[in-house]
Amino acid sequence: MNFSQILLILRARQKIVLITLLITVLTTLAVSLVLPKSYMATSSLVLNYKGVDPLTGMSMPGQLLPGYMATQIDIISSKNVSLRVVDRLGLAQSPAVIEQFHQATEGKGTVRDWLADLLLKKLEVVPSKESSVVDISFKGADPQFVAAIANAFADEYQKISIQLKVDPMKKAAVYFDSQLKLLRDNVEVAQSKLSKYQQDNGIVSLDNRLDVESNRLNDLSAQLVAAQGQTMEASSRQRMASGSGYAESPDVASNPLIQNLKIGLGNAESKFAEVSQRLSNNHPQYQSAKAEVDKLRMDLRDQLSIASRSVGNNAQIFQQREGAIRSAMQEQKAKVLELNRTRDEMNVLSKDVENAQRAFDIASQRFSQTRIEGQSDQSDIAVLNPAAPPIEPAGPKVLLNTVLSLFLGTMLGLGLAILAEMLDRRVRSYSDLADVAQIPVLGVIEWNEQPRKRFGLFKSAPQRRLRLS
Questions:
Q1: Is beta strand 381-385 parallel, antiparallel or unpaired with respect to 39-47?
Q2: DSSP structural state of residue 63
């Protein structure tokens, strides 16, 4: 079926199209005039999802999520909000409403739930495409009633949004309160362990004690090095003084008494040599000079032995002093190592106290902030335009319905015309005849009927003309 055939069908069935269009338009117009007038009130809200929390001053990342606006629309159109509106306006206490409820549901369910469902059916929540404004609209027969319902939905939505934000904060505050008690106990236990350890070890200020003991160890180490050098020098002098050439030892040779004895011995030997040249061995002067020389030699030998022994004694003294300093340094080193161990253990206890105190401080700060947020009644939702009782009805829209009925009636008439043609198929053109008979068309007789005369009794004969195809 081509386009020309469709036009021929519509031309032949034009009465069906016109009657269908007329019936549709008249029916729509009658229904629009009979239907009661309905009013719509709209309350506009602003969701401040790009702002900051007025209480904490922090940004609200949860409101920057893509599904935030859809979530808020679901909250507005939730049954919980609708039930709050019913309770706020006291709709469930009206005897007329209760009677309507029994007639509609035969007493099944509750009036609150029935009213909440009715309100949600007439509620319309429309978000703005490029802003954070949400329009809450409600339709009804009473202008005052629809405005009250729209404003009630806006107010209850604000309240429930605050409740949804505050309730988790209250629960979190209770949790933080219980945790603070445990953290406070942990701080007290750690502090008591540290205090007991200080008392048991007699520690007042560990750092100062460690500095003093370390300085003392350094001093003893320096003294030991000096003593070792003195001992080495004294040992060398002792070896030289105790050998066969002890007389050449600097310590022995520099002894004033020995030097005097050497001078006296030299003088006595000179005198004895002079006397021995003049006198015989038995002469009293010879005997006296010889005795003096022998006595000086004996005294010199004794003094050399005493000086040698004094050098050895001095070396032993230095060795004993070195040993004493080494022993004191070992004791001091052990004491410093013990202080280091004590400091390490005390540092562990101090870290435990610091960690426990830090955890307690953080939890305390979070508890304070959570408790303040749980007591806040601030909302990030503001009413931009409250709903006012509408003056003009929102429906039924007679002109719009009429225009739509014209379009719908036309489409319906076209469909009925095509359906009627399919049920009673007729030949409308030579192409239809060719399709039905499956034979070629040789010629077409064009039938042109003359128009009827206004006052004539008979029509003129039609004109016929043969056209070969």
A1: antiparallel
A2: G
